[in-house]
Design brief:
Order of helices and strands: HEEEEEEEE
CATH architecture of the largest domain: Sandwich
Strand order of the largest sheet: 2-1-4-6
Structural class: alpha/beta
CATH class of the largest domain: Mainly Beta
Largest sheet: 4 strands, mixed
Bound molecules: copper (II) ion
Number of strands: 8
CATH topology of the largest domain: Immunoglobulin-like
């Protein structure tokens, strides 16, 4: 009776280990999938109309692309505000300009300095 009992409990232990391994593998696979999805760059659109950027505040991931589309009747630009280290140059209605963003940005329109926007890098 004793040997039979111990082989039954051995079987249960092996079964439990197999279930654990299966759960670990499936959990690992699904978390890998999420990481891959999160890290792939995406594109965001900022529309310019009525002398404003919409949305004026944008959260992106590092490496994402932002496209500004001018839907106003007058030209606008997108210029880095703090040191003006980059600018789109003015672009007209129906035109667009894009940039890959790797850091927090404060920008404004050099033609209409009340127009302002920010981009924040989120994890
Ligand atoms: Cu403007």
């Amino acid at each position: 009776m004793q040997p039979h009992k111990s082989s039954a409990s051995k079987f249960l232990i092996i079964l439990a280990v197999l279930v654990c391994v299966f759960l670990l593998i499936s959990g690992f696979k699904s978390s890998q999938k999420i990481v891959h999805k999160d890290s792939s760059p995406t594109t965001h659109t900022v529309t310019i109309f009525r002398m404003k950027y919409h949305p004026a505040q944008l959260n992106v991931k590092k490496g994402d692309t932002v496209i500004w589309i001018n839907k106003d009747f007058v030209p606008h630009d997108v210029t880095e505000e703090t040191t003006q280290k980059w600018t789109s140059k003015p672009f007209n209605q129906g035109e667009q300009w894009s940039k890959v963003v790797n850091e927090d940005v404060k920008y404004f329109c050099n033609l209409h300095k009340v127009m302002k926007g920010t981009i924040t890098i989120i994890k």
